[in-house]
Design a protein that fits this description.
It is a single chain. By secondary structure, the protein is an alpha+beta fold. It has two domains: 153 residues, Adenine-n6-DNA-methyltransferase TaqI, Chain A, domain 2; 196 residues, Alpha-Beta Complex (Adenine-n6-DNA-methyltransferase TaqI, Chain A, domain 2). The chain contains ten helices and 25 strands. The chain has a four-stranded antiparallel sheet with strand order 9-19-15-17. A hairpin with a 2-residue loop joins strand 12 and strand 13. It is elongated, with a radius of gyration of 31 Å.
Length: 460
């Protein structure tokens, strides 16, 4: 936990124990993360100053002869092996954990060993290039944060009537809402003959922000003629039934069909409940509060029937022009997001929003023609944001690969110039016993005059 994926000491979360001098970490100690999940075992960092820190049994401390081996060189070498997947491929697996023993580390892990002055030059160059890389990544992350704020500001302006100009000649939104409610009653009668029609609750707008002239408030229950939960039957990748959308299929306000599971009992499905254009699908339960209430609008007909799982709620929006598009465009606006987080209940580590609570969610409704203008402007601006976000994410991924490329060049001897005046790394080295393990770690003969790969002379 206290070694980052970049090979640095991270003190953002620490625990405290009594520490003796023998357990205290000192300048030059190398810390190797010996137990973790398989993807993270092997992270390595070194201690840059004297400390009063101890270390847990999930760490192996490596203490080196600093007059012969630069600890930063060893730490970077081991972290390079971590980034390259060496420890993931060689770890021992336990229940939910993986480990690399100190015996394996001392006997089976070899690193290139150039002359000590060259070690120090390479380490200095690594740190210089990493500093530049970190500065570039920090700048990219600031761009990401600014794009997130800009996206929120666009949606906020859309909900407050500040994104596009108003036209006093537009038909007021309350006339549109009256037609929607009339269509809602007619749709209910057609789809649920014989069932008593229930009028939707009238929104309470007291204390809400003042809307522009010609706008009105509506709740989600007024804009949808029906709502319901999805199927609870088990789904699988190789099942014979139709596709069933799940939480991974609701991404960035869109339906993502890249990871589909299928119904195992297709004969038990009601095909009248298949998803249709204009349906609003909302995530109703999850362990992450950020995912609760995320949604997507079905924007076109599926070639084959698609259903949705029980931890999603479907609101069947009326086919009034632009209502589904408007909700899809502004759903993540701060005003709507605050409402969703305010009605989310929590139980046993799970967040939940009910269908009834979502039905009362308040939506600012502009005049019909203004809705067209708002939807077009939101999509125009956010499409630009999405392009920039994609470019930033690609450059952050590239920066991550550059870190490994820098280390690769370093340990191939291609990062700095060699100096023939340096004392060869193959000069005799006496092994230092691994006293705490009661054994001795030996050094293999050098492979070349200038560099070698061998188990390290270390004190564990």
């Amino acid at each position: 936990m206290n070694i980052s994926a970049k090979g640095e000491i991270d003190l953002s979360e620490v625990k405290y124990v009594e520490v003796s001098d023998s357990d205290r970490l000192i300048r030059g100690d190398v810390l190797f993360n010996n137990t973790n999940s398989p993807a993270w075992v092997g992270k390595t960092a070194y201690i840059r100053q004297d400390t009063v820190w101890a270390y847990s049994n999930h760490m192996t401390r490596i203490r080196l002869p600093a007059d012969r081996i630069d600890p930063a060189w060893v730490a970077n070498s081991l972290h390079h092996l971590f980034l390259d997947g060496f420890f993931r491929m060689n770890c021992r697996h336990h229940v939910n954990q993986a480990s690399i023993s100190s015996g394996f580390l001392g006997q089976n892990v070899s690193i290139p060993l150039p002359p000590l002055p060259e070690q120090r030059r390479i380490v200095a160059e690594i740190e210089k290039q990493f500093t530049r890389l970190d500065a570039g990544m920090a700048a990219l992350k600031r761009v990401q944060a600014n794009l997130k704020r800009y996206r929120a500001s666009v949606l906020k302006a859309a909900c407050e009537g500040r994104l596009v100009p108003q036209d006093p000649n537009d038909e007021p939104a309350d006339c549109l809402l009256a037609r929607i409610l009339s269509e809602r009653r007619a749709k209910w009668g057609t789809e649920h003959p014989g069932n008593k029609y229930v009028e939707p609750a009238v929104p309470e707008s007291d204390g809400l922000q003042e809307l522009p002239e010609g706008w009105c408030w509506a709740n989600l229950g007024q804009l949808a003629w029906d709502a319901g939960y999805g199927t609870s039957q088990r789904c699988a990748y190789e099942a014979p039934g139709p596709p069933v959308l799940r939480i991974p299929n609701i991404a960035k306000g869109r339906i993502d069909l890249n990871d589909l599971k299928y119904a195992t009992l297709p004969g038990e499905l009601n095909y009248a409940e298949a998803l249709a254009p204009g349906d609003l699908i909302i995530i109703r339960t999850n362990g992450s509060k950020d995912l609760i209430g995320r949604s997507a609008v079905v924007r076109g007909a599926f070639i084959e029937p698609h259903f949705f799982a029980s931890y999603l709620i479907r609101f069947r929006l009326l086919a009034t022009p632009t209502v589904p598009e408007l909700l899809g465009a502004v759903w993540n606006a701060p005003m709507i997001r605050r409402q969703i987080e305010g009605i989310a209940a929590t139980s046993a580590g799970q967040y939940n929003v009910s269908m009834g609570a979502l039905s009362r969610l308040l939506i600012p409704v502009p005049p019909l023609l203004e809705q067209h203008r708002i939807v077009a402007e939101v999509e125009r601006r956010l499409s630009v944001v999405a392009e920039v976000e994609t470019a930033v994410a690609a450059n952050l991924a590239r920066a991550g690969r550059l870190r490994q490329a820098i280390l690769k060049r370093a340990f191939e001897g291609r990062l700095v110039e060699q100096d023939p005046a340096d004392e060869p790394a193959g000069a005799p080295m006496e092994p230092i016993g691994a006293q705490e393990l009661g054994r001795e770690t030996t050094v293999s003969p050098p492979r070349t005059q200038q560099s070698k790969q061998a188990p390290l002379p270390i004190d564990w």
